[in-house]
Every structure is written in C-alpha cells, then in structure tokens.
Specification:
With about 450 residues, this protein is α+β, with helices and mostly antiparallel strands. The protein has three domains: about 130 residues, Beta Barrel (Elongation Factor Tu (Ef-tu), domain 3); about 120 residues, no CATH class; about 90 residues, no CATH class. Helices cover about 30% and strands about 35% of the residues. Helix 2 crosses helix 4, helix 2 packs antiparallel against helix 5 and helix 3 runs antiparallel to helix 4.
Length: about 450
C-alpha cells in the first residue's frame, strides 16, 4: 500500500508576518499612549482659574423712606396738558412746567415749537461769535471732554448730569462751527424754520401755563407724603418717631401736576437692629442696593444714628443726586451694605497651607544680616499654588471674606523683584496632585 505523503507547509516570510501584526501593534501602542496621557493628566495635570478683582457685601434688608422738602403743584385743567420740561429737570421760579391747550389742539405742535426755538437760538449764538477769537484745537478738546463726561454720567446712573452737559456740548460745537466756517448768514434751512415757527404759533391756542412756584427739581410723580416726610425728621427725629412713620400710609391728593423738590440735599431713613447699626459710622459713605433702581445702587452718606429704642435704631442717610427714578421714590425695599470686601476672588478648593522654616530674628532686622546659624521656627502659611508657564509657585494670601465656594483675599503689596503674594491675573491652581513650590507640570 502506497504511503500517503503529508504536504509540507509553506514557510511564511518574516516580512509578511510583520505586515500582518504591525497595524495591530501600532493600534495597541496608541491606546496605551492615550491611557498613559489620561492617567498623567489625572495624576499630575492641573486645572487653573484666573484671579480677578471682585467685591462682596455683607448687607441687611430694610425699608427706606425718602425725606424731602417738596411743594405740590396742582393741575386744574379740562383740556390737554403738555409738559414743558423733562421729569426731574432743574427749574427756576416762574418757569413753565406745562401748558393746557385748547380743545382739538395737538400737543405735537407745542413740542415742535419748543424744538424750533432751541435750534434758532443756536443759529443766533453762532452769528454772535467772533470766529477770529476762537481756537479750533481747544474747542475740539472741550467737546471731547464734555462728551466723555456725559458718557460717564450716563454709564454711572446719573442721567441728570448727562442732560446738564448736553446744552454746553451743543454750544461748544456751535462755536467750533463758527471757528471753522465763519459766521453763517440766513440760509434756506433757517428761513424755513422761522416760517414753520410762525405758522405753528399762529394756530397754537394755549389756555393756561403752569409755572414753578419756586426753584428746584420738577418731578411728575407726586404722593401724599409731602407734609409728613419732611427733612426735620432727618435732623432731630427719634427712632420711635421714624419707626412709627414707616408704618403709616398717605394717599395722594387728586388733581396734581407734580411737585417741586426745592432742596439739594435730601434723605433716606431706615430702622435697623442696634447690632447692625453699630457697624456703621457717622460721616462715612454707605452703599444702598435698591431694588428696581436702574443703577442698582446708590452711594450716600450716613448722617446720623439715632438713640436706641426697643433694641433698634434709626439711621439717616443723605444724598445729593437726583433723577426721575429717585424723585419718584418714597418707600422702597433695599439692602444696606454694612461691610464691603474688595480683593481677589479665588475658588475655595485652591486655598492650601504649607509649613516653612524661618529664622528667628529681632524686630526690624534686615534679612541680609541674619546669620546662617540662626535658630529657626516653623510657620504655617495660608496661600495658593499658581502656575507660571509650566512651573508651580506658592503664593501667600490674606483672607478677607470666605464662603463655602470662594474666598476674597487682600491684594498684598509685592516686594521688589520678588513675588511672594497672590496677585491680580495669577493662574491659580484649583485642582492638582502632588503640588509643591518649583514643580514642573504638564
């Protein structure tokens, strides 16, 4: 019987084996590298947060009552009444506050007349200016400064200050136009304006004009508190009197055009617990956080802390600012800032401590004069680790205010050519393992 031969296996070349296994090996190495990088970042990487300046407040919620010297302006009119001034605008005694127009008369005509008169006054002012006496460069500087002042006033919640600068800015621009192009002559635009003004005035029928009984700020919002909430309480009122007044209600009378606030200085009063009032000092600035106020806050001065009554004390704040919102305020909900903490805001998880050996020296000794063999003592310093490039440094902090989520730390001065304290815009390490001063991180 013929023996069956087993076929020989073909020998696979070495290079062919590597072509088969090489992609798998590369994939395995890639996965291992990714795992290693993830582990390295978890074990040795860091998460940072930029140290920024912030403010935190310790406040108490209360009710404020506004005290002002006011005169009510009655409105006895059957026809359409059109305001002649803006709300919270400064007026002089006898100035027109509003006019009553005849039946069927359009208010738009009266408002257009006021606008045309202002525009024509500028034309007249432009003709009266001597172009030779004007300096264009100085006028440009004045106009720029006035505009920036208006912008700053508007951004800081002082619209009345911005409005006060508007007329000055327009007159400055008028003077600049005269300096550049000389005195204008009557042109078509001015002639058309005068013709339009004559037309409107001829058909305008004003039944009566309401005038200011005295100088001050005219406010459209009036209430029944004018007699009760006067400034005498701010000067001599007791805690009991102010507390009783805060519980009263005063209905506004009918038929009012508005009111004239005729004192520059006015007041807010409130009643606080004696322990809270003790945190405030007379004569110092205080910030009020007022609900609904467009600026969000109002800076005032603490004028007086009244005598205690049943464990509570009235406080009197003075204010010099005025705008339409403030003029309308009477009883408002607000928070009084008792303490303010301004510094660097840092995540609570970033705060750490380190032990350091320091030489025991005499008070006032220059560090350069400390002998090498001086005795040392261990001090525990509170601070944060910060990252500069890829190097970790420890920086000291002085905590002003703390919560479970963050701390506010004082901006400490830096020594010349030696940064030892946390500073604005430091990259503070919030998460990281094995941190120490001088460590290199990913």
């Amino acid at each position: 019987m013929e023996e069956k031969k087993t076929p020989k296996k073909k020998k696979v070349p070495f290079i062919t084996k590597w072509k088969t296994w090489l992609p798998l090996l590369i994939a395995a190495l890639s996965i291992a590298l990714v795992v290693y990088r993830v582990y390295s970042l978890a074990a040795y990487g860091v998460t940072t947060q930029t140290a920024l300046r912030a403010a935190e407040y310790k406040t108490v919620k209360t009710t404020l009552l506004a005290l002002r010297e006011e005169v009510l302006v009655p409105r006895r009119a059957a026809g359409e009444v059109v305001p002649a001034v803006q709300d919270a605008q400064r007026v002089g005694k006898g100035d027109a506050l509003a006019v009553e127009l005849s039946a069927g008369q359009q208010a738009a005509d009266y408002l257009e007349i006021q606008r045309l008169k202002k525009d024509l006054l500028r034309y007249e002012a432009l003709r009266s200016v001597s172009a030779d006496s004007l300096n264009v460069g100085k006028l440009d500087e004045q106009a720029e400064a006035l505009f920036l002042t208006m912008l700053g006033a508007a951004e800081n919640g002082r619209p009345q200050d911005a409005a006060a600068q508007k007329e000055i800015l327009l007159n400055t621009l008028t003077a600049r136009q005269a300096a550049v192009s000389g005195k204008p002559t009557d042109n078509g635009a001015e002639i058309a304006m005068r013709a339009r003004l004559q037309e409107l005035e001829a058909r305008l029928k004003v039944k009566q004009t309401f005038t200011a009984p005295q100088a001050g700020y005219f406010a459209k919002e009036a209430d029944g508190w004018a007699a009760a909430a006067n400034t005498a309480l701010a000067v001599s009122g007791s805690t009991a009197e102010i507390q009783r007044l805060l519980g009263e209600t005063h209905a506004p009378p009918d038929g009012l055009l508005g009111k004239i606030i005729h004192t520059h200085r006015w007041y807010f009063v409130a009643v606080l617990e004696s322990a809270q009032a003790a945190l405030l000092k007379e004569g110092e600035p205080v910030r009020l956080l007022i609900d609904g106020y467009h600026a969000g806050f109002l800076d005032v001065t603490l004028e007086r802390v009244c005598e205690p009554f049943e464990g509570r004390q009235a406080v009197v704040f003075s204010c010099m600012g005025m705008d339409a919102e403030l003029a309308a305020m009477r009883l408002v909900e607000a928070r009084v800032v008792l303490e303010e903490y301004v510094g660097l805001k840092i995540d609570r998880d970033a705060v750490r401590t380190q032990r350091r050996e320091v030489p025991v020296t005499e008070a006032g000794m220059d560090p350069k004069d400390v002998p090498e063999d001086a005795q040392t003592e261990t001090v525990i310093e509170k601070g944060v680790y910060v990252r500069y490039g890829n190097i970790v440094h420890f920086r000291r902090i002085d905590v002003l205010y703390e919560t479970p989520e963050f701390v506010i730390v004082r901006e400490l001065p830096q020594k010349e050519n030696e940064r030892v304290n946390a500073a604005l815009y430091d990259e503070v390490i919030v998460q990281g393992r094995g941190l120490y001063d001088g460590r290199i991180v990913e």
